[in-house]
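Fold it.
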Amino acid sequence: MRIAVAPWVFASVMACGADDPADWPEGRPRIDDLQFVRQGPENPRALEFSLEFFDSDGDSGRGRLFLYLDGEETAERPMTDIFSASKPPLPIDASSGRFNVTIELAGTVEVGQKVELTFLLEDEKRRRSNEPSIVLEALPE
């Protein structure tokens, strides 16, 4: 994704959804934490996020991560790529951990406009996680 306006200053609001981690189905992946880390220092359209996950049977590393922008699916990435790029790399069979992912916005976003980004983790057996989201607002410098 790309933004025509640069540089941006962001404000964010996060929602983790209504799923109760205390009543979580065995083997279903869960995103426990989503954080907006930063805007790219050289590319203001690049946005870095940090996600913490849990998956009791450890098969999320062979699954996929989906990104939704304002409710529309906009990207999908294999978790093998994400796990191997983590610092330090996450084992493919990790049942929990934290990873960062960077996305690049496309299109034009004006000062004052808000965008909602939602993440979904699908494991190898196609069981889907909760869908935490974060709303970013473009602010003037």
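Residues 1-13 have pLDDT under 50 and may be disordered.
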